[in-house]
Amino acid sequence: MAEVLVAVMILGTMVISLYGGFSASFGVVRSCREELRATQILLRHTEALRLCTWSQLSNLAMQERFNPLGAAENAGGTVYGVTVRTNAPESVPDEAPYRKDMRLVTVTVWWTNFNGDIPIVHSRQLQTHVARYGQQNYSWGATP
Predict the structure, then answer these.
(1) CA 33 to CA 31: how far, in whole Å?
(2) Domain boundaries in the chain?
(3) pLDDT at residue 139 above 60?
């Protein structure tokens, strides 16, 4: 009888450990998927900046869903907030003649997920420089 109780205790410990491992693995996979989606959103908005004319560069704020196709049914999953900010570039010296023709663009994405009932806010940020006479003039044939 003692051997059976010890075997059941060992088996119970192994099953609980197995379920704990599954739970942790699903949490890590979910977190990685959210991080990857945030990176996709950052890159998409940064690449869209390449096609903007100088006059179209402005500060923006918007939201996107983890699954854009589910947004119509309000089942798109995690909501990502996106902000695009344009400023004068600090890395370019004030006496540089081209400073007025450049902007520092910062794209920030943030989202919230939960660990039980505890909200955890995540954010990612990407910065790039944009020039007045940059690639957008060659892509669209636009004038600045």
Answers:
(1) 5
(2) 2-140
(3) no
Q: Chain centroid to CA 119: how far?
A: 17
CA distance 20 to 3: 26
Neighbour count for residue 89 (Cβ, 10 Å): 18
CA distance 59 to 45: 12
Residue 126 burial class via C-beta count within 10 angstroms: exposed 0-12, middle 13-18, buried 19 and up: middle
Q: Residue 66 pLDDT > 80, yes or no?
A: yes
Which alpha helices (DSSP H) does the chain contain, by range? 2-49, 136-140
Q: Which amino acid is at 25?
A: S
Q: What is the pTM of this model?
A: 0.73
78 CA to centre of own chain:
11
Q: Are 79 and 111 in contact (CB under 8 A)?
A: yes
